[in-house]
TrEMBL record:
It holds the Pfam family F-box-like. Coiled coil: none annotated. Residues 3-51 form the F-box domain. SMART domains: FBOX. It comes from the Eukaryota. Residues 211-232 are annotated as: Disordered. This is F-box domain-containing protein. InterPro entries: F-box-like_dom_sf, F-box_dom. CDD domains: F-box_SF. PROSITE patterns: FBOX (PS50181).
Amino acid sequence: MAPFLDIHVPPEILQHIVRHLDPISLIALSQTSRVWRAFINPIHHDYAQRLLALELLPEHGIVPRFDERSQKLTPSWGSSEWESNKYACCGCMKLRTHMMFDNHAILRRLFRKPPPGSVEASNATTTDWEPLELSARWRHIQDRAAQAKEELEKCRVRVADWPREYAMLNPVPHPFARVPQYHDDINHEIEAHLVGTSRHKRRCVECQRRRGNWSRPNSHPGSKEAPAAKSRQLKFPSMWERHFPGLVERLPPESVPRIWRALRESTDGIQLSLYVLCCPSCDTWQEHSAFREWSLYQFGFGSPKRPKDPLLCNRCHLAAHQDPDLLAQELTMGALEMFRDDRDDTLHQLKFGWPLIHRDFNDSGNPNPPLAKFKAVGAEILSGLRWTSSTKQDIIIEDSDLPDLGRRFQRYREFIDHEVDSETRWRVLQSWFKLWFEDYDLYEKRYHWLNKQIAWLESDVKIVLNYVLKRDPYRI
């Protein structure tokens, strides 16, 4: 008989009760007293099970769904649900923010959080604790792992044999016919049996670094002193919002013009991958913007570029040099360069449509201009504009010219909306020019807004430094 809870309960009954606990309750019970700890005697496997069960609780984030066929993640990376999402690392035995894991550790089939109803999610509801000696219990754990591996292999074979089975059941007239994707029942079978079965092997970026996974040359996109890991891909309206999030208050969504430049996947932002680097001085992982290497890991040819040592985060740079003015100057110069580039892009968008308006009214280089019979209106709108060359491919404007340019555009808009027929209007408003026509006022407002932000940053060199030290926006 064993004295627990001031009553005498046979050990067999207690063992039966404990075997029906979930992994979280098992460890919680073992930590209530020395007697319970000696009775349960938890091992590393039990703590790992508890950690993997904790990551599935709602307070530690969502269970995202990843469609392997369409490569679609629900919810998407930029949604607010990901802010509190945590994952278990069975190396350091901690629940860490998702930013401490690379994409493979989160999206690979065997490492993903298992959805409700799957085999792995069901296993997380009941512990596999047994009242055995450590060696005997470890053998049982290994036996169960071997059986689970056999079941997983059967499921993999089932998935691999699907095209052959489909071909046998649905013969095709020629050997090059396309085999369709998995049926939904096959996809559900994958989800139910395979997702999350190797979560105990998931490691955060810090554990990978300590294990020496990145000791080989070119094994990661960082440097020898500052290892780096590729992280989430997010959409940013501009580069300064990517490197200085929250520095200025954004324009309301209805005041943001669409982006129509080439090589853009969408009209509302740029897809950029985040990278996290480990500072060699403070040994903390931070988003790479904290290291003031703005040109690293940008899109384009020859990317990503590798950082050059020594590389220190903002706080370590300040501690090493003891010169706030030096850090403030570097940060302000970087922010101003991005804001000015954004302003130049907006100015380019403002100027984009005027050569096209000239082309539509005149027959130079255009054999059949749609607005040729309205040359008088064209002269009213275009006369007095300064062009960069005789070919009239671009106009010259200054800030003082914007009010006059706005009046010219309003006259052109009235003309297109009320003085031409629908077919001519359709011929004129095509492709990017249509976006320019619809969002011209927004481009002008954004240009003036960016001028104000640049003047604000130029007024005090320590604005960005105070923002970085107060908000600490890069620490993960």
